[in-house]
Specification:
The structure is a single chain. The chain is mainly alpha-helical. It has a domain of about 70 residues. The longest helix has about 30 residues. The radius of gyration is 26 Å and the shape is flat. It starts with a helix and ends with a helix.
Length: about 110
């Protein structure tokens, strides 16, 4: 409908090339971090819902086979929680900034060799 509307009433867009960029570039790392946290939270909640759903279905008479799926989902959930804890501790580490030119050169050489 938008195509027909623009042909009936003339051009409503300004001609030219438009590039979409974020409004504020200094906030990009914070947005990236928030997006990562949101994805991790959604994955965790999906696993919890799957665990509860398979447990509920497994308790229905005649569907006890689904309890094996519940066991698999529970193992995945525990593994994901362990991984979340690892990510959390890794993100909490503070790396001191080098202060002298020699320290900068040594860290650069060390990172280049690994």
């Amino acid at each position: 409908m938008g195509i027909l509307a623009s042909t009936r009433y003339g051009k409503q867009q300004v001609p030219g090339r438009w590039v979409m960029v974020p409004k504020d570039l200094p906030q990009a790392p914070r947005r990236r971090r928030n997006r990562l946290i949101r994805k991790r939270r959604q994955n965790f909640l999906r696993l919890v819902v799957a665990a509860l759903g398979t447990l509920t279905l497994g308790l229905i008479p005649g569907l006890h086979v689904i309890l094996y799926a519940n066991l698999a989902v529970d193992v995945l959930l525990v593994g994901y929680v362990v991984q979340l804890r690892r990510w959390h501790t890794a993100e909490q580490k503070v790396v001191p900034l080098p202060t002298t030119r020699e320290e900068i050169a040594t860290r650069h050489d060390a990172s280049a060799s690994s």
